[in-house]
Design a protein that fits this description.
Order of helices and strands: EEEHHEEEEHHEEHHE
Protein name: Protein phosphatase 2C domain-containing protein
Strand content: 15-25%
Shape: globular
InterPro entries: PPM-type-like_dom_sf (IPR036457)
Number of strands: 10
CATH superfamily: PPM-type phosphatase domain
Number of domains: 1
Oligomer: single chain
């Protein structure tokens, strides 16, 4: 088994709000949901703090193969709540939150969990990749009837647009008919997408934050098979480097409208040492 991991902030010198880690047979990517500085959260801790502590708790809880991945996530949310319930208002709609991608080997199977727009890509032998992501956040954004193009990234108008979007999304977060993320409600874990695959059917698996999947799902520069090819050849660092090149080619979001010119990006890649060639 070969495992590679990479995680870097969208801008040098800025806190990385992603968390990526591995343990024997266990892989996790947490993507903290950043908010504009002038939007209240009711919490004295940063999004990066939340992502790190949730990621550590998930690793500890999911090590036990007898605990379901959704149960492990629910327990982890409760444990992080306990760390700051006395100092922060956990009822605040803007409380720090994160998306989650989690995978675990259990016997001859690979279990996976995805909450919100993190991505798990299963590199299946002799088949097209299976892509697992939760598009309910995308559905809510579509219902907000936003203009087709956002203002130029970095402009004052873009900052106002982003602040307005975050405030409107808060009304739909962790509610039926809205979208679900890890935050202060353990029941959100029950809304995660889960499944399992036989390890005999897989060449590998990728766990991606949305900053590492945007070459495919936002920029449309690669398909999922091509993204897996990048990971097989150059690993997560190459994938992130290519993403940075694409972001730098469109710094104000003229070609690809988006909330951040460059996003935090994290990828975990597991590949079988005896991987079956893709042309078989």
């Amino acid at each position: 088994m070969r495992v590679q991991i990479a995680s870097e902030p969208g801008r040098p010198g800025r806190a990385n709000e992603d968390f990526a880690a591995v343990a024997p047979g266990l892989f996790v990517v947490i993507d903290g949901a950043g908010t504009p500085a002038d939007v209240g959260t009711g919490c004295e801790h940063s999004v990066a703090w939340y992502a790190r502590h949730l990621g550590g708790a998930v690793l500890a809880a999911a090590v036990d193969a007898g605990t379901g991945l959704d149960e492990a996530l629910a327990v982890s949310i409760e444990r992080v709540n306990a760390l700051h319930v006395r100092t922060c208002d956990l009822r605040h709609p803007g409380s720090p939150s994160a998306t989650v991608a989690l995978a675990r080997m259990d016997g001859g199977r690979l279990e996976h969990l995805v909450l919100s727009d993190a991505v798990v890509v299963l590199d299946r032998i002799g088949q097209s990749p299976a892509v697992v992501t939760d598009d309910r956040l995308t559905d809510v954004i579509a219902r907000l009837d936003e203009p087709e193009r956002s203002p130029a990234v970095g402009s004052d108008a873009h900052a106002r647009w982003l602040r307005d979007r975050v405030e409107r999304l808060a009304a739909h977060r962790n509610r039926p008919g809205g979208f679900w993320v890890a935050s202060t409600k353990p029941e959100a874990a029950g809304e995660a997408l889960t499944g399992s695959s036989s390890l005999d059917e897989l060449n590998g698996v990728a766990l991606l934050s949305d900053g590492a999947s945007r070459l495919v799902d936002r920029f449309g520069l690669l398909g999922w098979p091509e993204l897996l090819a990048v990971l097989r050849k150059g690993g997560p660092e190459e994938l992130i480097a290519r993403t940075r090149d694409a972001e730098a080619s469109d710094p104000v979001g003229a070609r690809w409208p988006r909330g951040k010119a460059a996003d935090d990006a994290s990828a975990v890649w597991w590949a079988r040492e005896d991987a079956v060639p893709r042309d078989l």
